[in-house]
Specification:
Radius of gyration of chain A: 19 Å
Number of strands of chain A: 8
CATH superfamily of chain A: Aldolase class I
Number of domains of chain A: 1
Strand content of chain B: 5-15%
Largest interface: A-B, 32 and 25 residues
Number of helices of chain A: 14
Oligomer: heterodimer
Shape of chain A: globular
CATH architecture of chain A: Alpha-Beta Barrel
Distance between the termini of chain B: 46 Å
Largest sheet of chain A: 8 strands, parallel
Chain lengths: ~325, ~300
């Protein structure tokens, strides 16, 4: 009797469908008139956001497919003081094979992986080793994450070192004080320099929206980061008291829409923190589809910054396949 | 479509509410309805079809009320009115029971409303039916408080009511709940296109133990409506609908002692006049204002 062993690398090389590479955002000169004209109608945005969860329902096989899509968009993350190489190894094993193979084959899918693995700089080598042979990129948080208040030259140097260590994506944090004091030039210059330090690595700008005060600030900060060359804009570090919310997301993705209309560049969006239920991920996907279109449902333009989300999605998928729910502990997260 | 196909297309796919419960109720009721007069359904008379506007499928056959049917309904309402007006607490209890049953059967009401009217399930399920429930809860409270809060006010008697097809159950709630709370009894004619939730409401009234004759529902076309509005015993008439028909009704009751409430009109142009209002928000509100309920909301 012969059994064909499938090596992990054979499975994962089919993970990413051939993708058209979009031209990278080149940024533009700081246009303060545009920044000044940016508005955010808080009442209207909140009203819209409140109705979003009831607006679209995705059921049965459609729900299963959407949840698998959500998995392919997750930046599987561990950002804790007690991170060890062992934990990163477990996380990466999960990233290679986020859904049990038996479950996945019953869904008629194969080779599914998460979008990326997101770790602190010190864990980049461990993650790279654990992900060897796959196409899963390693993302590093940088620039004095999460507060962004370490010496400026060290923050820039931190980016360079993470890139040199092999990180393909860099999540930087902006200086919130530049937004709160309306110092747009400083924010623009900072973001520009960080983008340059990233070189070929893609840069995600973390706005820390929970600390920016108003939605108008969120809209303006989003725009400035895009003008300065951000490839992605991201809500939060996950360490603020308020992280990704629907009103903030609407504000940011509408800024992305405006930027594309004006410049032709498509910018990615990454909500992070607080998205832990499968149902939440469906709401985000339908919001992206409605506001920006299907193109923003691919990993090069949309990511979830999450860790516990995957476990809940697995439970829902298992329910779809077997008709019964499993306990959360059966889907351990590394 | 396999899961893999959908993974690539990311389509929404169908997400229907089950119509099974609503269709089962129609079958239980024999798919043919008489009128609800004096606490019971009459035998079906000359019927017409009530259709699902989305498919053209016939949902049920409902009766066209004659002058004699309207007479019977108004007399039943008249007979029940004095006792109904006497005990505010009993009215509160009955209205509360109706509200509870509306809530208990909210899914059934929502699906039946969507089948019969064609409005999206999101609007019937999330707006119309919950609001109708709130009206009955509110007016249960008003009935209880009437003596204390509205001293010297008393019931008018029998109210004749006609409602349109754009918010069938919600319009019924707006008209029926306050009339009952203040001690009136009602004869209601729903729109001929959308009578089914009114008939389901009649069924709920029976379950709630509402005294017979307090709510009477007659179905039919314009001439049935004219018979309700023009009936000499009706002390008050209430009409929501077109300006033309409203004028006809007002002419017919001019010079009588009848009181009336008219809600007339059609769509008003919606304009945006908010200087520096953010464009996204304004557009959002204007769209909601114009398009809610498939363009059938009446704005004054």
């Amino acid at each position: 009797m012969e059994t064909k062993a499938i090596s992990p690398s054979a499975v994962t090389t089919t993970a990413h469908l051939p993708q058209l590479h979009l031209p990278r955002n080149e940024g533009m000169e700081l246009d303060l008139d545009w920044v000044a004209s940016v508005q955010a109608n808080t009442s209207a945005i909140e009203r819209r956001a409140a109705t979003l969860p009831g607006r679209r329902s995705v059921k049965k096989e459609y729900q299963a497919a959407w949840l698998l899509k959500a998995i392919s968009l997750i930046d599987l993350t561990t950002l804790s003081g007690d991170d060890t190489e062992g934990r990163v190894n477990r996380l990466c094993a999960k990233a290679r094979q986020p859904v049990a193979p038996a479950l996945l084959s019953k869904l008629g899918m194969s080779g599914l992986t998460v979008g990326a693995v997101c770790v602190y700089h010190d864990m980049v080598p461990a993650a790279l080793r654990a992900l060897e042979g796959t196409n899963i990129p390693v993302a590093a948080v940088s620039t004095g994450f999460p507060a962004g208040l370490s010496p400026y030259h060290l923050r820039i140097q931190e980016i360079r070192e993470s890139v040199a260590a092999g990180a393909k994506e860099i999540d930087i944090v902006i200086s919130r004080r530049h937004v709160l004091t309306q110092n747009w030039q400083a924010l623009y210059d900072e973001m520009r320099e960080m983008r340059e330090a990233c070189g070929d690595a893609h840069v995600k700008a973390i706005l820390a929206t929970g600390e920016l005060g108003t939605l108008r600030n969120v809209a303006r900060a989003s725009l400035i980061c895009m003008m300065a060359g951000a490839d992605f804009i991201k809500t939060s570090t996950g360490k603020e008291p308020i992280n990704a919310t629907l009103p903030v997301s609407l504000t940011m993705i509408r800024a992305i829409r405006d930027y594309e209309t004006r410049t032709g560049f498509k910018i990615g969006y990454k909500p992070a923190g607080g998205i832990s239920k499968a149902k939440d991920s469906l709401v985000y996907l339908s919001m992206m589809k409605d506001e920006l279109g299907n193109r923003w449902l691919q990993p090069d333009l949309f990511r979830f910054g999450a860790s516990s989300l995957l476990g809940d999605i697995e439970r829902q998928l298992e329910h779809y396949v077997t008709g019964a729910y499993s306990a959360q502990w059966r889907h351990a997260m590394g | 479509m396999t899961v893999k196909d959908i993974f690539d297309t990311m389509d929404y796919g169908p997400a229907p509410e089950s119509a099974a419960e609503a269709l089962a109720w129609l079958v239980d009721m024999g798919d043919r309805f008489g009128h609800f007069i004096d606490g019971k359904f009459t035998a079906p008379g000359e019927t017409f079809a009530s259709k699902n506007p989305a498919t053209g499928e016939v949902l049920a056959h409902i009766s066209q009320a004659t002058q004699a049917d309207v007479d019977a309904a108004v007399r039943a309402a008249r007979k029940a009115q004095a006792k109904w007006a006497k005990d505010a607490h009993a009215r509160a209890r009955a209205l509360y029971a109706i509200a509870r049953l509306l809530q208990k059967h909210s899914r059934l009401f929502a699906v039946l409303e969507t089948l019969d009217n064609g409005k999206p399930i999101r609007e019937s399920r999330d707006i119309d039916i919950p609001l109708a429930q709130r009206h009955f809860y509110y007016h249960a409270g008003m009935a209880q408080l009437m003596d204390a809060e509205l001293p010297g006010r008393e019931a008018l008697g029998v109210c004749g009511q006609i409602i349109p097809w754009n918010f069938p159950l919600l319009m019924l709630a707006w008209k029926v709940a306050p009339a009952l709370a203040m001690g009136n009894t009602v004869v209601l004619k729903p729109a001929e296109y959308t009578s089914l939730t009114a008939l389901l409401f009649a069924d709920i009234c029976r379950q709630a133990g509402l005294p017979k004759g307090v709510v009477n529902i007659v179905t039919g076309f314009g001439d049935t409506g004219a018979a309700v509005m023009g009936h000499p015993i009706a002390a008050k008439v209430a009409f929501t609908g077109s300006t033309e028909v409203g004028k006809v009704i007002m002419r017919s009751i001019a010079g009588t002692e009848k009181k009336m409430t008219m809600e007339l009109g059609g769509k008003a142009a919606t304009r945006s006049e908010f200087g520096d209002f953010a464009a996204d928000g304004t557009h959002n509100f204007v769209t909601i204002g114009c398009k809610t309920n498939n363009y059938t909301a009446t704005t004054e």
